[in-house]
Amino acid sequence: MNRPAVLFVCVKNAGKSQMAAAITRHLAPEVAVFSAGTRPGTALNEASRASVERIGATMNGENPKRVDPALLGTVDRVVLIGAEATLDQPSKAPVERWDTIEPSRDGIEGDERMDLIRDDITNRVRDLLARLRTDDSKS
């Protein structure tokens, strides 16, 4: 059995893609997980970090980084998070886009906002993991 590999990409690689990576590592340690940004920020989003820590996941050892073109040829799936994230180079792996919820549009801010985003990403990660496991069982 090959170890599936996933790359999560958002613009800054400071919040949502880091959350998706941390949650995936937490739920499926058997999956190789990477995250990157198209225009990486300089530091992790602390509210995102705190939110994933409330469910036992961690961003420890992570920092915002640019998409590595070589990685695009090695992963099994690329997930673009948000409408603004785009790849400059094509990926050999299937690419999907997640348009996550934005609770601030409904006036929800702070920890509650971040936890709703985290929960949305968690549900999407669970669905992705189920599909990866199904794909793996076919090989």
SSE arrangement:
Blueprint: E1 5-10, H1 16-27, E2 32-37, H2 46-53, E3 77-81, E4 95-98, H3 110-138
Parallel strand pairs: 1-2, 1-3, 3-4
Question: How would you concisely characterize the structure shown here?
Answer:
With 139 residues, the chain is an alpha/beta fold. Helices cover 35% and strands 15% of the residues.
Folded structure, characterized:
By secondary structure, this protein is α/β, with parallel strands linked by helices. The chain has helices at residues 16-27, 46-53, 110-138; strands spanning 5-10, 32-37, 77-81, 95-98. Helix 1 (16-27) links the parallel strand 1 and strand 2 (32-37). The longest helix has 29 residues, at 110-138. The N and C termini lie close together (8 Å).
Which structural traits does this protein have?
single chain, alpha/beta, four-stranded parallel beta sheet, 4 strands
Shape: globular
Helix proportion of residues, in percent? 25-40%
Average pLDDT number: 95
Question: Number of helical runs?
Answer: 3
Strand content: 15-25%
State Rg.
14 Å
Q: Could you name the ranges where pLDDT drops below 50 across 5 or more consecutive residues?
A: none
Strand order of the largest sheet: 2-1-3-4
Helix-strand sequence: EHEHEEH
Query: How would a textbook summarize the main sheet?
Result: 4 strands, parallel
Structural class by sheet pairing and helices: alpha/beta
User: What is the number of beta strands?
Assistant: 4
Q: How far apart lie the N and C ends?
A: 8 Å
